[in-house]
Amino acid sequence: MNKNVDFYFDYGSPATYLAWTQIDKIINDGKAKLNMIPMLLGGVFKETGNSSPAFIPAKSKWMGKDLKKHADLYGVEYNSNSFFPINTLNLMRGAIAAKKMNIFEKYSEAIFTGIWVKDVNLGDLTILQNYLNKNEIDSTQLFDLVQSDKIKSELIENTKQAVEKGVFGAPTFIVNNELIFGQDRLEFLKMALK
Amino acid sequence: MNKNVDFYFDYGSPATYLAWTQIDKIINDGKAKLNMIPMLLGGVFKETGNSSPAFIPAKSKWMGKDLKKHADLYGVEYNSNSFFPINTLNLMRGAIAAKKMNIFEKYSEAIFTGIWVKDVNLGDLTILQNYLNKNEIDSTQLFDLVQSDKIKSELIENTKQAVEKGVFGAPTFIVNNELIFGQDRLEFLKMALK
User: Fold this and answer.
1) How many independent structural domains does chain B possess?
2) What whole-number distance in Å separates Cα of residue A41 and Cα of residue A95?
3) B66 to A168: CB separation less than 8 angstroms, yes or no
4) What is the CATH number of the domain that holds A183?
5) A83: closest CA of chain B, how far (Å)
């Protein structure tokens, strides 16, 4: 049986972006099935008492360099975002909407690279809508869905379930009830798929 | 020239124990020089606004398993300590005293394994003194030094300098002004020694 990987994510997390750049290869090599689950990281932090390492100045300084080292190791582009922390509420609702529109991969790539490669301020609604249209994503259709109660509830529910399963940060992977936290734990994810 | 590795440590940190079990091999392979610098992690946390991940229940639960996974990977013994968090003030002053007595390696091995293998409550002064004597360390001589103003000041000074150099947690390694944080960053330490 192919193993299932639940990948709890929020576009606003740079470590999650790095994990996302590596996940397809890991899933292919492990002959696994990927289930990307949008959650609101701010909500997870609030519920668990956790907080972003970016708010400890000395840790944030180290983390910027550490993320860049990992990006170089992976051979992917990474830039810090000048508008960090970005309010990702609409972006994460958008992820659920994009799933319903069957454009989730395209949407995720646009959003992840918009924030963590191209330094776009995707927390700004007008900038976001223009950016989506430029990336051939129908922002009008997407935002009709984003504003629906169904999608708002779904994001709340995902976030609640994440916390219930022990998630306290992003990225988090769950494989057979094993919780693997952090883009720096991809080796443990690979081991879980063996 | 052999590179110098400053290893900022506190015995009370389980991640630091794991790093310590690996450091000799890394130093030998890298033909480097090791400089173990005792600091008070509680003081570092206070100065930097950082805190132990152990105080976030969901993170603490994950961390216990993650430390065990790393210990298994390294092939070393590791057990959580029932008395965590341990007040390490006397232990860290003791590290400086042990250096002056030329028994630092013996003392460090006793303290690290006492806390993180044998589940001893080394925050308790009587237990600590008995434990040292049992491990053939002259606790009377050590504690004469521990209570001296010189050693008290030295620990304060080490901690202050650590924070000035950007340290916010343990273990932290500094090689040629590159700050490497975490027992899960030993690969970056090895790379810095190449």
Assistant:
1) 1
2) 14
3) no
4) 3.40.30.10
5) 23
